[in-house]
Amino acid sequence: MKFSGFELFKQGLTGNKGWGPHWRTQKPRHAYDIIIIGGGGHGLATAYYLAKNHGLRNIAVLEKGYLGGGNIGRNTTIVRSNYMLPGNSEFYSHSLKLWEGMEQDLNFNTMVSQRGQIVLFHSDGQRDDAVRRANAMINRGDDAEILSTAELRKHVPYLDFDNSRFPIYGGIMQRRAGTARHDAVAWGYARGADKRGVELIQNCEVTGIDIENGRVVGVQTTQGAIKAKKVAMVAAGRSSQVAAMAGMRLPIESHILQAFVSEGLKPLIHHVISFGMGHFYISQSDKGGLVFGGNLDYYASFAARGNLAMKEHVMEAAMALMPIIGQAKVLRSWGGIMDMSPDGSPIIDKTHIEGLYLNCGWCYGGFKAVPASGFGFAHLIATDSPHPTAAGFRLDRFRSGYGLMDEEGTGSQHNLH
Predict the structure, then answer these.
(1) d(CA 173, CA 134)
(2) What parts of the chain have a pLDDT lower than 50?
(3) For residues 78 and 180, what is the distance between their CA atoms, to the nearest angstrom?
(4) pLDDT score recorded for residue 194
(5) Which residues, including other chains, have CB under 8 Å from residue 24's CB and lie 6 or more apart?
(6) Cα–Cα distances in Å, from 85 out to 251, 322, 343?
(7) What is the Cα–Cα distance from 239 to 338, expressed in whole angstroms?
(8) C-alpha angle with apex 245: 242 to 212, nearest 5 degrees?
(9) CATH architecture of 24-77+182-251+343-416
C-alpha cells in the first residue's frame, strides 16, 4: 500500500481498517542467491539497496528474533556527519544526504528531524580543534558553523555556562544534523525490501556457516539448512560470534552502551546537545522524553544491560551540563551491544572466504550510518568492488596498519572509542 495524504484521509473515515501488513510473513526456501544474516537497520538497508539499486530479488534476510529488535531499536537516534578524516568524512556525508531523501525514497515516515546538533567546547584547545573540524566539514560540502558563548545563550539558555570546572567557551553547530525514529527506519527499509521481492525471515537464528573448498555455500539455521551463493554478515555486536561460525576471529570487541529516557516534558531542548568534557549527549523526543547517553560500560559483554556505576557517571555529566535536568525523573534505561573496532571506524569488506562478506565495527556510529552502510554494502555484494564512499573500511587495515582511521586521535584500543 502506498502512503499518501488521500490514503490517510480515506483510512481515517473508515476507522483505519483498510491497512495491510507492511511485509509478508515468510518461511525460508531451500536456496537463495544472497543471504543476509541480521535483520537490523544495516541488514534491512542492505537488502533494500540490493533490490532497488542492483535489481536483485532472490534474497533472504535472516533474523534470530524480530525485525529491528537489536541495536536499531536500542539507540539515541542521532543523525550527523561531523567527521573530519578522509574515509570517514565522505561516508557520513553521503549517509546524511540519504537521510534527507529517505522518507520520499521509502514512502514511509521515518520522522527525520533536522533540528541541528551542537557540540560544545570548554577550553581554548577544544575551540581550535572545533574550528579545524568545522573547516574540514565545510571543505567537503557539509555545513558547520562556530557559535560564540553569547550565541549559545540564545539557543540553549538552560545550560550551565559558568560551571567552574567546565565553562562553556562555544560550540560547533551542524544544522542539517538531528534525529530520526529508530523503529520507523527499520520498518521503512523492511517494507521497501519486501515490496521489491526480498524475503524477510524472522525467528530464524543462524547456527552455522557452510563452507566448501574455500567458498561459502549456505547456512545452518533453526529452521533448517539454506543454500546460498553469497552470505553477508551484518550482526552488529554479535558479529564476532557469527564470524566464528566461519572460523574467523574479528578485530572487534563487544561492549555495552547504555541510554536513558526521562518522563515526558514540555518542549525544552530543540537541538541535539553534546557535552565536550565527557561523552554525554541529549535530545528531546517528540513524546517529550529527554533521550540521553554517555560512555561505554568498559567491559566486554554480550548482555544488553548495563551497570550502576556507569548510570551514575552519565547522571553526573548530565548535571554538570544542565543542572535543571535534576528535576526530571528517569523513566527507563537500556543497553545496546556495540561492536567496537580498534580505530573506532567500521569494516565493510569481503572476507578471505569467497562469497562471504562482512559489515561490522560501528562503535557509536551505527544508527547515523544505516543508509550509507546499506548502500555501500549492497554495492560490494552485488559488484564485488567497494563503493567509493566506503573504500577505506578495509578489514586488512588492522593487520597492515595502513589506512587506520583513528577519528578521535585516542589510539587503537577498542575501549577508547
Answers:
(1) 9
(2) none
(3) 7
(4) 97
(5) 194, 199, 200
(6) 21, 31, 12
(7) 10
(8) 130
(9) 3-Layer(bba) Sandwich (3.50)
CATH fold of the domain at 113-177+253-340: D-Amino Acid Oxidase; Chain A, domain 2 (3.30.9)
pLDDT score for 129: 94
Say what angle helices 370-383 and 88-100 make with each other, to 10 degrees. 110
What's this model's pTM, rounded to 2 decimal places? 0.95
Residues with Cβ within 8 Å of 118's Cβ and at least 6 positions away in sequence, in order, are 147, 152, 155, 156, 171, 172, 173, 271, 272, 273, 274
> Looking at residue 151, what is its pLDDT?
97
Q: What is the pLDDT of residue 405?
A: 87
CA–CA separation, 45 and 61 (whole Å) = 11
pLDDT digits (tens, 9 = 90+) for 215-247: 999 999 999 999 999 999 999 999 999 999 999
The residue count of the chain comes to 417
C-alpha–C-alpha distance, residues 390 and 376, integer Å: 6
Q: Label residues 197-235 b or e (16+ Cβ within 10 Å = b).
A: ebbbbbebebeebbbeeeebbbbebeeeebebbbbbbbb
Quick one: how far is CA 343 from the chain centroid? 17
- State the residue for C-alpha cell 515526558: 264
Domain boundaries, the chain: 24-77+182-251+343-416, 113-177+253-340
Give the span between the Cα atoms of 272 and 291, in whole angstroms: 10
pLDDT at 17: 86
| Residue found under cell 542521532 | 78
pLDDT at 285: 95
Q: In this structure, how many other beta carbons lie within 10 angstroms of the beta carbon of residue 73?
A: 17
| Residue 321 to residue 163: CA distance in whole angstroms | 8
